[in-house]
């Protein structure tokens, strides 16, 4: 394996470790996020090292800058995950007017449940939606052959559903009832 591949693997490993502990299990390494999900960077690095996962501030900065999905945000001496938390946080995102349609990537085995119940946040606080089909396709492909659903966001917004958009462009809403979903034709 060449050095570039090794560096990329290390970046992915650090990113996944950070996601796990900044989005889902901060207490596992002794961290306490503030109400908006922020933690001091020095505290994060020390907690990770104390639990056997060491990285430098330079590595952290590289992970944040190199992440194509902008999963993390740094504000001065603090860091947080941009969205996707299963722990209670208030990201402080103002309500936003969505485009006419947003998109959700999923897989065929989930379609029956989605037809019956709509999109639910599952283990997250919000349903995550994409602004374009391409991104939704990539999201769905993480779990198998992707199926992209269109969400009539304009009608949802008109009917009083609230949307937020995260710092990395992911659209968030509490749930999407089935009546606002457009399913692809069955083949």
Q: Give, in order, the helices and strands.
A: HEHHEEEHEHEHEEE
- Strand neighbour order, sheet with most strands: 1-3-2
What class would the helix/strand composition place it in?
Answer: alpha+beta
Question: What count of domains describes the coordinates?
Answer: 2
- The CATH class of the largest domain is identified as Alpha Beta
Helix content: 25-40%
Task: Pick out the low-confidence regions.
Answer: none
- How does CATH name the architecture of the largest domain? Alpha-Beta Barrel
| Annotated CATH topology of the largest domain | ADP-ribosylation fold
| General form | globular
Question: How large is the radius of gyration?
Answer: 18 Å
For the biggest sheet, the summary is: 3 strands, antiparallel
Strands, count = 9
Mean pLDDT: 90
Number of helical stretches of at least 4 residues: 6
The amount of beta strand, in percent, is 15-25%
Distance linking N and C termini = 43 Å
């Amino acid at each position: 394996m060449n050095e570039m591949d090794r560096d990329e693997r290390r970046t992915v490993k650090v990113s996944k470790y950070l996601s796990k502990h900044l989005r889902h299990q901060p207490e596992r390494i002794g961290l306490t996020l503030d109400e908006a999900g922020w933690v001091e960077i020095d505290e994060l690095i020390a907690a990770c090292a104390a639990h056997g996962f060491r990285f430098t501030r330079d590595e952290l900065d590289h992970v944040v800058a190199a992440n194509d999905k902008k999963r993390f945000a740094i504000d001065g001496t603090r860091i947080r995950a941009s969205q996707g938390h299963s722990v209670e946080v208030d990201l402080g995102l103002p309500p936003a007017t969505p485009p006419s349609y947003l998109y959700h990537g999923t897989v065929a085995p989930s379609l029956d449940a989605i037809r019956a119940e709509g999109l639910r946040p599952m283990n997250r606080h919000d349903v995550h939606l994409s602004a374009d089909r391409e991104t939704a396709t990539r999201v769905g492909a993480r779990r198998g052959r992707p199926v992209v659903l269109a969400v009539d966001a304009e009608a949802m917004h008109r009917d009083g559903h609230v949307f937020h958009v995260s710092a990395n462009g992911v659209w968030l809403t509490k749930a999407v009832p089935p009546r606002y979903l457009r399913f692809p034709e069955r083949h």
